[in-house]
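Quick one:
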Amino acid sequence: MSENIIKSDEVREYLRQQEGREVTLDSIRSEFGVSRGTKSFDAVRNIMYQFAQQRTVKPVGKRSGVYKVLVQVQPVKVFGQEHKSGLFNLVFPKDRDTEMEFSFAEDVVIREGDLILIAGVSNYGKTAIAMNFLAENIESSPVLLGNEFTSSDGQPTPRFVSRLESMDWVKWVNGTGEDKFTLLPVMSDYPEYIVKDRINILDWVNIETGEHYQIGTLLSEIKRAVGKGVGVAVIQKSEYATAGRGGQFTKDFADLELLIDKHGEMESRLTIGKCKESTKSLTGKSWAFGIFQGVKLVNIREVKKCKRCYGKNDSCPDCNGLGWVDK
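Output:
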């Protein structure tokens, strides 16, 4: 009986399901039940060589028999068809005394698929800002992915429940008593749990291995996963740093970067570190605010650096050594 030799079309169909991943000659042979000593055993190597020439796959480094399956890209027609604006109606956090959003909100352009990055020092408002994004967009059924909102038994923590209760301007449940938002206790593999086409708030994104240079790749995957929704990702930042942990890598895929620092001993300061699209220049501008009951934002106002002393004179009549004055 003649031997049935593996066909390139069979391997091509298998590779379509593996786009973006790595495969090996051994994994392909295993998939098709190819044994050593058969004609198909050597045919697999020849087929993969041909696919490498066709740019369907590419060899990985110097590891023999390992290939990256390339995602096949088709030309995209730009003109001659109707285009949607892709604008996303995202409500920004508000001052609870005035019910006004941060003033930059009217100038920022947010589109479907955008990623908002909140990078801040510990205990100065990262979670408060994230929770206010959740609250102001509650009617859009947002998703909250967090590693500190639930306990080991899968129940909401008392601190998280207390924050929700303090946000007494929000109706957290619908008419039947069901949550208007989805809470997912996620501590790793964040992109795998993103709910496509929704507002996804991740508080906070952590690189467990400490390899913070990987944050760029992780944020890129989160950005792709949200589809036509919007991602709001929270990361840690060192005091006085101009970027979150991971440095420049944190900025690469952010469409809007919000840096949170302390503003004196009792307040916080939000600075726009990057804004990809706006109706006027916003990068570098700052707003100070207070936080009441852990979640209520108050006294939001734009601030600027003190030009008299730049924070170097504790007796400065303009800023009292803070280095910032109200604009």
